[in-house]
Amino acid sequence: xxxxxxxxxxxxxxxxxxxxxxxxxxxxxxxxxxxxxxxxxxxxxxxxxxxxxxxxxxxxxxxxxxxxxxxxxxxxxxxxxxxxxxxxxxxxxxxxxxxxxxxxxxxxxxxxxxxxxxxxxxxxxxxxxxxxxxxxxxxxxxxxxxxxxxxxxxxxxxxxxxxxxxxxxxxxxxxxxxxxxxxxxxxxxxxxxxxxxxxxxx
Length: 202
Prior knowledge:
Layout: E1 5-11, E2 29-38, H1 47-65, H2 67-70, E3 72-80, E4 89-96, H3 99-106, H4 109-121, E5 128-137, E6 146-149, E7 158-161, E8 175-178, E9 180-182, H5 191-194
Antiparallel strand pairs: 1-6, 1-9, 2-4, 2-5, 3-4, 7-8
InterPro entries: Dimeric_a/b-barrel, Monooxy_af470
Pfam family, one: Monooxy_af470-like
């Protein structure tokens, strides 16, 4: 149970001052699904798979170091074993604020290096599979709910804010806040309300 939040919560996007306002799903969210799979008998220990994985690690370092430049919000990583007992498929789910931020990341060195390596060696690695999917959800077209869950996927997002109410005199002018808020009542207590499809009836 370590790290779980023992209540019904949702993840929203605060404004620059850390306020969430009264309108759920108030901004665009871009979702990138990036998959990597090995079909080799050695599985994840296949040298080609290990090589491409280093590019994934480098991309993560770039994203973490340049969050605001890319409008990067968070990543969740999963091992898929639904159709193969080997668990030889990895999936990273990335969240961005805009398509512009995602495109900026896609054309920066860390991602370009991986793409170039793949294009040069694809004929040598028929037993490695890669894929991506991109979805852009406009305001009012996304929602989420978590019950007794730990902060994962979109609930693990962090946002830079200009100021927070604090008693600490030496508080930094910019801080990072979680997007997780209570979803038990009001405009967040149902899927339709979180997508602003129903009136807010308390």
